[in-house]
Amino acid sequence: MAKRIDVSGLNAYYSSFLAIEDISMTVEPRSVTAFIGPSGCGKSTFLRTLNRMHEVTPGGRVDGKVMLDDENLYGAGIDPVAVRREVGMVFQRPNPFPTMSVYDNVAAGLRLNGKYKKSQLDDVVEKSLRGANLWNEVKDRLNKPGSGLSGGQQQRLCIARAIAVEPNVLLMDEPCSALDPISTLAIEDLIGELKERFTIVIVTHNMQQAARVSDRTAFFNLAAVGQPGKLIEIDDTERIFSNPSVQATEDYISGRFG
Amino acid sequence: MSHATLTPKSRSSLRGATLPKWFPWAVAGGSVLLGLGISAAAGLHSSIQWALIAAVLFVAGSYGISARVEGVRQAKDRVATSMVWVAFLMALIPLLSLIWETVKQGVKVLDGYFLSHSMGVVADSEPGGGIYHAILGTLEQVGLATLFSVPIGVLTAIYLVEYGRGRLAKAVTFFVDVMTGIPSIVAGLFVLSLWVLILDMGPSGIAGSFALCILMIPVVVRSTEEMLKLVPNELREASLALGVPKWRTILKVVLPTSIGGIVTGVMLAVARITGETAPVLLLVWGTDFINANPFQDPQESLPMYIYLQYSAGSDPAYDRAWAAALTLIAFIMILNLAARGIARWKAPKTGR
Ligand SMILES: Nc1ncnc2c1ncn2[C@@H]1O[C@H](COP(=O)(O)OP(=O)(O)O)[C@@H](O)[C@H]1O
Ligand SMILES: [Mg+2]
């Protein structure tokens, strides 16, 4: 079910402020692509253009093309709600729905979309929780509030919630930055398993993490504060970390700035 | 040489001399006794006078003693604390005395008979009679007003928080602010001119409800708006990112998360309009008989009953006015308690 993403000439604005400029890249299906770069260079903004969440922000505007296989997400007549069912998202801070139990959180996507058979729901919930490596920890407390879990468990709950609607692509915006090292490892392992089924794009501030989990790495940078962020280069992760073709990438990776 | 180094108690520089826990209570007790003594000696009779003397003594005494023993910083701290307590008690005194007086006067005639009978066959100057017709009227008028105001208010708040951008939203906010400030008599006159004078309808419960709506809607809008703003944006985004349409996100995620607060706000708004007298006086007129139909003919309501009985001026009428006031206060208190209960029950759960 995983799909290829093909971005070309993409600009994103906040009102009149151009946040990212002229981004083009290809993301292969069943691969993990990591976005790295200094704070404020537009990684989150770019990620959110990939499932049309950017326009949820007041003033958010995009031009350019994002092809999901052979469909342009910004083409005429495309329903952003339908796009978001195909392209799921996991946020920086775990955000389970506080009024819902563990079970309801995972079932939320199906239930809120109103398209499910009751008998299937149990299966989907179990499968998604197993998929997020959380089943064993929560199978006895499915009816307890989701916000009672630990931070790492909550984040895996959010991943389970995202994969329960069977998206083609999974976007993750610094999914581990609020977590402890053990939970971080758990999620990194999980990413390795999920890439068999999904196309994964992950923003991370942690260079080792990018090196550990991703097949391809994209480096973003901005000339100065107030300037738009740009894609500097995208390449196989090994190459980016051993022998990048742009000097700025090497400087960033070796910790000379950023 | 500072004071602290002289006291044998302070061995370390971090541990200064401290007054015992009971110190504030002792000072408070002493001040009250002294206050009573002084006012007795000076021949003052008002309890307000001795209480004020005691309050001043309490604040000054805490400061003086604490400054000697503990140091000036701690003394200032104690003064601040004492002032807070004094202010708290001052705020409490009128409230408690009001409740005390109402209960004392109100229980005289408040019984099952009083709650279940009207004034239909009782002259204002005679004992007997009751407030059944007034309770019925209040419940119906307030119920109808709530029925109209809650959907309008909540939907307006949803528009303002979730959709409203630009001019229209600003205009709506402005008018809600203006409505918040409308005096109840003006709301009553407005409905009077529209409903009674232009549309030529007679006085009825529902005319009063319309006026109460004008007072209730802005309160509901404001409180609901605040509650919706408290819902973290991350929850909306989480839901949208699952491919849930916006209206469903609002219905299934935003509203359930804030429902406790919204209900509390509505209950408080109900409590506020339940005590309104002016619009009811203008539009519902009042009657001594039971009228269960809010759409036709005058009705009674509790605040109006109190006012009319008080105006009647006889002793039995005074007693009935107090009993009705007690009923009204009890009703509003029950509403408030219910609001708290619902808020607690519906609050997002964090337990394991
Ligand atoms: N909601 C917003 N409104 C206006 N500007 C924003 C908003 N979010 C981000 N920006 C700006 O867009 C640029 C890129 O931000 P972001 O995508 O969050 O960077 P990163 O995720 O790489 O740290 C920054 O200059 C930031 O100030
Ligand atoms: Mg970011």
UniProtKB/TrEMBL annotation, chain A:
One CC-aspect GO term: membrane
- Occurrences of domain ABC transporter (ranges): 5-247
Which SUPFAM superfamilies does UniProt cross-reference here?
P-loop containing nucleoside triphosphate hydrolases
- Quick check: keyword Translocase in the entry? yes
Q: Which InterPro entries match?
A: AAA+_ATPase, ABC_transporter-like_ATP-bd, ABC_transporter-like_CS, P-loop_NTPase, PstB-like
Gene Ontology MF terms in the entry: ATP binding; ATP hydrolysis activity; phosphate transmembrane transporter activity
- Quote any Pfam family the record assigns: ABC_tran
| Signal peptide extent | none
User: Keywords in UniProt for this one?
Assistant: ATP-binding, Nucleotide-binding, Translocase, Transport
Source domain of life: Bacteria
One GO BP annotation is: phosphate ion transmembrane transport
Q: Which PANTHER family match?
A: ABC TRANSPORTER I FAMILY MEMBER 17
Record-given protein name = Phosphate ABC transporter ATP-binding protein
Taxonomic source organism: Streptomyces parvulus
From TrEMBL, chain B:
Q: InterPro entries under this entry?
A: MetI-like, MetI-like_sf, Phosphate_PstA, Phosphate_transprt_permease
Grouped into one coarse class, the protein's main location is membrane
Localization per record: Cell membrane
GO CC annotation terms, alphabetical = plasma membrane
Q: Which UniProt keywords apply?
A: Cell membrane, Membrane, Phosphate transport, Transmembrane, Transmembrane helix, Transport
Entry membrane topology:
Multi-pass membrane protein
Under the GO molecular function aspect, what terms does this record hold? phosphate transmembrane transporter activity
Biological process terms from the Gene Ontology for this record are: phosphate ion transmembrane transport
For this protein, the record's SUPFAM superfamilies field holds: MetI-like (SSF161098)
Membrane-spanning parts:
21-42, 48-67, 79-100, 142-161, 173-198, 204-221, 253-273, 321-339
Instruction: Please give the family membership noted in the entry.
Output: Belongs to the binding-protein-dependent transport system permease family. CysTW subfamily.
Q: What does this protein do?
A: Part of the binding-protein-dependent transport system for phosphate; probably responsible for the translocation of the substrate across the membrane.
Name of the protein described by the UniProt record: Phosphate transport system permease protein PstA
